[in-house]
Specification:
93 residues, mainly alpha, 87% helix, 0% strand, elongated
Length: 93
């Protein structure tokens, strides 16, 4: 549980960075297109998305630990783990 708060804060910071960069890019989209920088900007935003997913991994793993070590019925724990793991797998692929 203690690992979740710092991980969530770091993830939130990565989200803010990506949203801020996207907003700034959209505000200057006409200039970016005229200078032919759309490919560069697209790659930059995509890199920020990938970074955000990497940073969120620590939070998601802490969430899995909490879900799988809860005081619920063992099959429920396994099902929770499996569902979160599948979601993480498909989010990264």
């Amino acid at each position: 549980m203690k690992a979740m708060r710092p991980a969530r804060m770091i993830w939130g910071k990565a989200i803010k960075e990506r949203i801020s960069a996207s907003s700034k890019m959209l505000a200057q989209i006409k200039s970016i297109k005229m200078m032919g920088l759309t490919g560069y900007m697209s790659k930059s935003i995509q890199d920020l998305r990938v970074h955000e997913l990497d940073v969120s991994r620590k939070f998601r793993l802490a969430l899995i630990r909490i879900l799988t070590t809860g005081k619920s019925h063992p099959p429920t724990n396994y099902l929770s783990y499996a569902l979160v793991h599948l979601k993480l797998y498909f989010a990264n692929n």
